[in-house]
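User: Hey, quick favor. My workstation is busy. Could you predict this chain's structure for me?
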Amino acid sequence: MLLEKIYNQSPIFIQNLMVSIKGQQIHNSRYLSHSHEEALRILEANERSSLAILQELQFRQLRSFIEHCYNLSPYYRRKFEIHGLVPKDIREPENVSRIPVTPKADLRAQTEAFFTAKIDRRMVAVHTSGTTGSPITVYFSREDIGKRFAFLERCRRWASVHVGQRRASFTGQSIVPEGQEAAPFWRYNRPGNQLLFSSYHLSPDHLPSYAMALEKFSPEIIEGYPSAIHVLAEYLIRNNLSGLVKPHAILVSAETVLPHQRHAIEQAFQAKLYNQYASSEGAPFIGECGAGRLHVHLDSGFIEILRSDGTPAQAGETGEMVVTSFTSHVTPLLRYAIGDVAESAAVAAECPCGLPFPTVQAVVGRVDDILFTPDRGFVGRLDTVFKKLPNSIVEAQIIQTSERRIALRLVPDRKKYQSEHATLVVVEMRKRLGQAVKIEVEEIEQIPRSANGKMRAVINLCRGSLPQSLRYSEEKTEVISTLDNDSTVG
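Assistant: No problem, here it is.
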């Protein structure tokens, strides 16, 4: 909190220096470890393997991970004992269904029981609010962080880009102090060769300055939230500025990307958009190749797509995703119901890109609405407002009911929740939404679900104030869920 106060009160050149120092620290932890270098070599070699060899490797890793969970995690040890299981019962991939599915509610309510080691400063804490706004803090070993960013680097390589190139990142971090009303709404991370743009100041009046800064920086990579990148893309198209900036690739993450967003972004920047799927909790990776197909990284984990009765979905069917991640050894994810729905690939044909990994047709992810406030303009991706909270909120939903009124609906955990927790959320919302809107807190017992059983975390009920291109259809829209990991410094 003290560091944040110092940052907010410092001149911009000092803020850039602080961002760069943090960027160097994050870069070191992600990319300079022995595990990262070793993983890069292994992952490249795996891409030259056959599907059969990769499946054998995946099952060996799965059995080893199950042993790890059973031996070291109190939560999983208890679950195995209750169901009369031991790791040796999993003799083939089909046997994994004998292990009960782990609901997200268990990870939120019993986080410490998942831990396989005593938490210390050498570990990396990651805060995620998930698809419902319910905050969870998980921990990773330095080794697993290195491996996870090797998988992310593989995704970059599939897009023909790499770490170290000039990056323009549209981030959910509060890099612009509250009260700043004029450009620049971006900060520079020198070690990362990265210009970070605020996703919370994309008002019509500010979009020209965003475009000018982007043109001056001339990034080789544009990355981050598709909702934020899309707002800028629409501005460029409306003003006949398509091609003003031509990166080598656009890498979207942290939220769903809709077909019309993809079309506008690719038109505005004249580059291909590449999508990825994972999560802050540490889910396995799914990445888009140059042919536009989504490949499951078998060496990152085990992904099941299940019908409502728990049986595997068949080709072309849609089902719930249950994930096991091989890079989550401290807070392990073993048959974890992550809350996303996926569609199995209709045809198991070989991909034109030549990669040996199997594909999924799509991941049906959440569709958060874009909000609009008089002093901040278009605002997307608001789940970051919950990340500073303890695990005291079961669910949350943000609803804009008029141009100047927003309702914050909270389902509190009565054993942990305190009234000041809502105040903390409102403070974070103000940083992103400005002062012109009234924010009303409503404590309720349950948040209603949509027709498909999912909860929309952000809803705009006055979307008539938005441009037509930013209004999402009320009908079911199949979208690709993306890597739930902020495009932050590093």
